[in-house]
């Protein structure tokens, strides 16, 4: 699955870990720091990558909610029913429009390295478009994903 990873630049370490974990599970992850080179027109590169991606993964943190670029990338994914939010820290206060996307919590994976949450994310991203689009807003955990009647 082609995945666009959206995050605030101050959270690059988390983005790197997510990228590595998803790529290890067969996803083709686009992240600005690995795909934009000096001299590239960065906004065009980002727009092209969004258009080419099948899923948009957004790191949900109190810091990322302050980024205009993260917001625009999130809204593109939301409009195209291809976005999933990753809660990376607890507590993390969600407000509209971020509450309208499927949400997975990876805070424990970041802390412990146990694979359950990242495996759940990988399965979620791999769902056929029809099933992915039907995920209900506010998806809270792998348990909800595995037990959801909407999939």
Description:
It is built from eight helices and five strands, in the order βαβααβαββαααα. By secondary structure, the chain is an alpha/beta fold. The chain has a five-stranded parallel beta sheet with strand order 2-1-3-4-5, with helices on both faces. Helix 4 links the parallel strand 3 and strand 4 (83-87).
* N→C terminal distance: 18 Å
Strands, total number: 5
Shape: globular
How would you sum up the major sheet?
Answer: 5 strands, parallel
Helix content: 40-55%
Mean pLDDT rating: 83
Quaternary state of this entry equals single chain
Rg measurement, Å: 14 Å
Strand order of the largest sheet: 2-1-3-4-5
The class by helix and strand makeup works out as alpha/beta
Helical region count? 8
Helix and strand succession?
Answer: EHEHHEHEEHHHH
Give unreliable regions as ranges. Answer: 140-151
Beta fraction of the residues?
A: 5-15%
């Amino acid at each position: 699955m082609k995945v666009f990873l959206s995050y605030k630049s101050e959270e690059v370490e988390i983005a790197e870990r997510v990228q590595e974990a998803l790529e290890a599970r067969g996803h083709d992850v686009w992240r600005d720091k690995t795909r934009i080179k000096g001299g590239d027109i960065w906004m065009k590169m980002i727009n092209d990558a969004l258009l080419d991606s099948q899923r948009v993964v957004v790191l949900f943190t109190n810091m990322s909610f302050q980024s205009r670029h993260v917001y625009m990338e999130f809204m593109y994914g939301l409009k195209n029913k291809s976005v999933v939010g990753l809660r990376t820290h607890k507590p993390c206060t969600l407000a509209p429009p971020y509450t309208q996307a499927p949400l997975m919590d990876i805070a424990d994976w970041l802390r412990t390295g146990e694979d359950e949450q990242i495996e759940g994310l990988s399965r979620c991203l791999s769902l056929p478009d029809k099933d992915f689009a039907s995920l209900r807003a506010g998806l809270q955990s792998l348990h909800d994903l595995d037990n959801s009647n909407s999939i």
